[in-house]
Amino acid sequence: MTATEEMREGMAIALQAEDEDVRVAAETTPEQASQGAPEEGDGVLEGTVVLVDQAHRPEPTDLLAELAARRRERQPLVPLWLRSRADALQVLKWQAEHTGYVLAYHALRTPKYAAKLAGRSPAGAWRLLVALVRWLFDLEGRPVRRAAATKEEAAEYLALSRQRDDRVKARLWTLLVGVITAVLVGIFATVAAPTWVQWAILGVLIAGAGVLGAPADQPLLDRAVVPNRVRKLTGDQVLDALGSLGISAINQALGKNGRGITFPAPIMRDGPGWRAEVDLPLGVTVAEVLDKRDKLASGLRRALGCVWPEPVSEEHPGRLVLWVGDQEMRKARQPAWPLAKSGQVSLFEPVPYGNDQRGRPISILLMFANVLIGSMPRYGKTFALRVLLLACALDPLAELRLFELKGTGDLSALEKVAHHYAKGATDSAKAACVASLAEVYAELDRRAEVIDGLPRHQAPEFKVTPELAARRDLGLHPMVVAIDECQELFADDEYGEEAAKYATAIIKRGPALGIILILATQRPDKDSLPKAISANAGIRICLRVMGWQENDMILGTGMHQAGVKATMFTLNDKGISWAVGIAEDPVIVRSAYLDGPTSELIAERALHLRQTTGTLSGQAIGQEGPQRVSYDLLADILTVTTAKEDKVWNSTVVDRLADFRPDAYGQWANLEDDAKTAALTARLKEYGVKTEDTWGRDAAGKGRNRKGFNRSDIADAYARRKAQP
Ligand SMILES: Nc1ncnc2c1ncn2[C@@H]1O[C@H](COP(=O)(O)OP(=O)(O)OP(=O)(O)O)[C@@H](O)[C@H]1O
Which PANTHER family does this one have (predicted)? Predict the structure, then answer.
């Protein structure tokens, strides 16, 4: 299509004006076009000429959004390091250490400085003598006097000579007085002053002469070479390091005609390190820099473990926050885990987990969430999981169901407080795990029924509250199900499918009902970790992994591309992870290091706590572990009821079932009546049997309505199921 044809159709085209570098667009309306199109090639374009780059006209904008954006541009009123006591202390400590270092550096070199001064003192004495002679004989005025003589200006010359004679006379007297005073002081000092004063005077004279004799280009003091550990981070270092990454757009920006790299905020201390905020050149993303963290560290001449580039999600993808620690993260002294020696928790509050690069504590709110932990082997998954579980154990209300399918006994400290516990990649451990999951699966419906049956003001958001969790009659206490090396279970031919079904339901519905599922895996692929499970985990902790697929499987799709890359961790970064879902932005966090003996001590405390509150249950009090029972609920109900009972209350049947088969229904026996009703309602729902208000008489013979069912519905459901192939 030619330009003319385009115009005929009312389209805008861009033309290049010959003389000026201004691009214009020509535009015609259909009417103009209909008046006749210019001939092709005649070079005349008709129509209105409009600038392609329109003059700036204020656009109607979202004022509030603009104000919010501008607010973000403000510098913080209080510097970052002054916002927390811990950070301020860190900075002051650093400053004190730095000053101490510089002083010590110079103090150690005092002999060298003294020798330098002594060496320079003859030159200084000579300079002093020359200056004195020049001053005494007024040699500065000599050129002027000579000029007057040369021009034969007798009067002027005489005046200048007279002035010079007077001056020399006065200076001679001054010098004489000075010399006599100095001689007297010298005699006095030699005769009467203590030796140290004599040495001090001599020292001051030599030092003074040494200072005067210093060459202009050789300062007396050496530069205090600040050790690498506390070396200041400067803008030049950051630019040099970015320039060494081999990213062409960065090199262009740093080149002669480049538009440069900008720092939206000054480089400042932030905790035990420096923080630089950088706007990368147009088109360069933080993800590209993260990929080259080792090169960046090399460019900065810092250890890899000190260099932590991060994206800023609320800004554009080119905004980089570079935090450079004084020490490698793994070597930095980690503050003690706050619960190591004392304290208990409520899972409705965040529990301490570890520290970020700056040493700031990182806590995780486990309630209403699920956790997925992943990494390649030996990078600290189980340690991370154990920290969380020890915290859970310190909530006396939390029921722990722990399955460590690796078999090394890393969670064995917690066995004494666990409702269910099994270890090993054995069939029995997997069977126990599936049986426990099946119970929790049934518990989902029971809890939902209980919450649904509560007055609205007690559960306004249809979820467990701390008050509801504390009421034992409701059975809504926090329940923590943890499976370490969960790939052993999900990839198992016999148990995998069933386990995945339960885990998927628990991960989706559990959070609101006070059930927390924590999974750890070293093989985060789709066979070992069903998509429905990995997609629904709210909190994700990813220690070192080798590829972006594993990274995204654990942290969520697109995370690697967004710069949240656990691939950047190195061999030595044990226990260090990217964590998503615990704060607004992903954070780098190192889990608290709790070794075996420390974990034992904490678990002992958890045991005492539970003994005091009377919340030990299950295997912790010697009950049998979860069994995969092959019983038939419908058949059992038909057994414990008679054909004459056409309508029967749930709670009555639950009591009979618990008597009839304690191993299968025993756990219902201790529930309150309402909870018994809810438990059976939930189970019957699975078979399509409805419960409804049913008239009956209680143990005292009093007539009332309670939840029950028609026995014939049970018989029908049983028959239907039997009829199925
Ligand atoms: N927070 C931490 N700080 C320092 N070192 C840690 C930390 N967490 C774990 N480690 C070290 O990492 C090692 C491996 O930890 P862990 O057993 O938890 O790894 P894992 O990923 O569970 O391994 P596997 O896949 O074999 O089960 C530990 O022996 C410990 O020395």
Answer: DNA TRANSLOCASE FTSK (PTHR22683:SF41), SPORULATION PROTEIN RELATED (PTHR22683)
Question: Does ligand 1 lie within 6 Å of residue 105's CB atom?
Answer: no
User: Are residues 410 and 490 located together in one domain of the fold?
Assistant: yes
Residue 520, domain CATH: 3.40.50.300
**Gap between the Cα atoms of 194 and 430, Å rounded:** 90
Q: Answer with the one of 35, 51, 67 that is the final residue of a domain.
A: 51
Domain shared by 612 and 681, yes or no = no
Strand partners, 710: 647
Max distance between CA atoms of the chain, in angstroms, equals 151
State in Å: Cα 392 to ligand 1 middle.
20
The closest residue, in CA terms, to atom 23 on ligand 1 is 378
Nearest CA to ligand 1 atom 16: 380
Pocket probe mutation, ligand 1, options 329, 379, 386, max atoms within 8 Å of Cβ: 379
- 595 alpha carbon to ligand 1 midpoint, in Å? 10
Annotated binding site for ATP: 375-382
Same domain membership, residue 645 and residue 539: no
Residue 56 lies in a domain: no
Tell me how far apart the alpha carbons of residues 223 and 210 are, in angstroms, rounded to a whole number: 19
Q: What is the CATH number of the domain that holds 238?
A: 3.30.980
Q: Which amino acid makes up residue 509?
A: R
C-beta of 305 in contact with ligand 1 (< 6 A): no
Provide the token pair at 93.
């400590």
Please report whether residue 352 resides in a domain: no
Percent of residues, the chain, with pLDDT higher than 90: 42
Instruction: Give this prediction's pTM.
Output: 0.62
The C-alpha torsion from 289 through 290 and 294 to 298, rounded to 10°, is 40
pLDDT band at 3 (very low <50, low <70, confident <90, very high): very low
Total of domains in the chain: 5
Q: Is the CB of 386 under 6 A from ligand 1?
A: no
Terminal Cα-to-Cα distance of the chain (whole angstroms): 70
- 601's CB contacts (< 8 A; 6+ apart) are none
In the predicted model, is pLDDT for residue 696 greater than 90?
no
Q: Which of 212, 240, 257 is the last residue of a domain?
A: 212
Same domain, 386 and 504: yes
* Residue 558: inside a domain: no
pLDDT at 36: 41
**The pLDDT of residue 314 is above 90:** no
Residue 383 near ligand 1, beta carbon < 6 Å: yes
- Binding-site residues from annotation: 375-382
Tell whether ligand 1 has an atom less than 6 A from the beta carbon of residue 591. yes
Q: Is residue 97 part of a domain?
A: no
Ligand 1 closest atom vs CA 543: 21
Ligand 1 pocket residue status of 331, Cβ below 6 Å = no
Residues 339, 390: contact at Cβ < 8 Å? yes
Range of the domain at 23: 3-51
Secondary structure in 3-state letters for 34-48: HCCCCCCCCCCCCCE
Both 416 and 536 in a single domain?
yes
Give the integer Cα–Cα distance in Å for 204 and 187.
17
Give the integer Cα–Cα distance in Å for 576 and 328: 12
Beta strands in 185-340 (DSSP E): 262-269, 273-279, 307-311, 319-325
Residues 426 and 519 in one domain: yes
Distance 378 CA to ligand 1 centre (A): 5
C-alpha–C-alpha distance, residues 552 and 542, integer Å: 9
- Alpha carbon of 377 to ligand 1 centroid (Å): 8
Same domain, yes or no: 606 and 643: no
